[in-house]
């Protein structure tokens, strides 16, 4: 259990997931500090949060940011799954190398507790059966997935050698407000934007493969529930436990927007996982957490946020 004065450092905390973790941590009474190269895209600095501008790869900046913190949540990564195949070397040099340098600083207890955000959608590869449990063999098929798994293994090694306490989370595909609908990652906000703007949606493959999607506020609540249950050096899936196809998601979004898009089908990419649904039994058994936002309600909240954001940006 945490102490009242716990201070949490979010590395890469100004991104989509980090912004919701900030909200949940503050709601639970934690002190929050953020280390990031960039400010949040969709809102101003949050009152009560300390911000340190810089990269965790800069060890001087990292040591400054870590000072006085009890827990570190690592969210930063140099690529996204869709671009990692073009530059696999970046995964090793920029992401894995910087991560190893970071935790190497902590072996003498600069900070003793780490939450590492891995990827439930990438580290398992194409699973042999569904749903996927944490004990399943990890067989990533993309440089992004390989890098995430490597960082898990390095964290385990440093824990074994130097006693670092950790939690590894493998979330499914998060969605919700503040996800960049103009970006390269996150099919749900991108589909919303393209349908609203009458743009053609490109689907890799036939669109029938199913994946697991989770509302981002539920994800943030899950992570904080694990922190408050103690650092047990374990891996946890965080998911909805329900698989959905891209075609069904387009139907859902079209119904909300009141119009249908043009769809073009292009050849499936070899590094895309075909079907994956994660079991969240392990976290439910440990903390009692279950997702509370239905997929449909999450879509509606996302739609309202996109509409408001687009309206405000046009003023």
TrEMBL record:
Family that this chain belongs to: Belongs to the NAD(P)-dependent epimerase/dehydratase family.
Record Pfam families: Epimerase (PF01370)
Gene3D superfamilies: NAD(P)-binding Rossmann-like Domain
Organism: Syntrophobacter fumaroxidans (strain DSM 10017 / MPOB)
Domain NAD-dependent epimerase/dehydratase per the UniProt entry, residue ranges: 8-238
Signal sequence bounds: none
Official protein name in the record: NAD-dependent epimerase/dehydratase
InterPro entries: Epimerase_deHydtase, NAD(P)-bd_dom_sf
Domain of life according to the entry: Bacteria
